[in-house]
Amino acid sequence: MSVAFVKEPNDLQVETLPDRDLGTDLNLVTARGLHLIETELNELEERLEAARTADDRIAMATIQRDLRYWNARRASAELVAPPADADTVHFGSRVTVERDDGRRQTFRIVGIDEADPAQGLLSYLSPLARGMAGKEVGDVVPAGHDDAEIVDIEMASDDASKA
């Protein structure tokens, strides 16, 4: 067999990892969301240095891919100031809804990378957040298979260390 067809493993070669998908939606962020991006970048830089010290080429490739992603997210971030009023639901608002079964849930509408529904942080692109946008207390919005009534809207604090 010709050597041209044999691919010998080479510990010094690491295949380039494909970049993470950045999506096409606006990268709206709260001050907290921007802080989280900065924190992620700092942690990745530390991990990259540790991988270099250990000469871990696979880890370096993975971390470099993640650094490209988070640097692009930081570069495209559009910081949105907290809403000026609590009359209607906006990006950054904290909204409490009451579901048909009586459960109350509170969500803050945030950017894509900051979203964590289990922690009450809802992406502005989610169906519930889109349905609530521009609505007022008393309005009913689709929430999954049921409906939910908006019972409270707050101007959320934009302290970078809080949800």
UniProtKB/TrEMBL annotation:
Residues 86-153 form the Transcription elongation factor GreA/GreB C-terminal domain. GO terms for molecular function: DNA binding; RNA polymerase binding. One of its GO terms (biological process) is regulation of DNA-templated transcription elongation. Pfam families: GreA_GreB. InterPro entries: GreA/GreB_C_sf, Tscrpt_elong_fac_GreA/B_C, Tscrpt_elong_fac_GreA/B_fam. Signal peptide: none annotated. NCBIfam families: PRK06342.1. This is Transcription elongation GreA/GreB family factor.
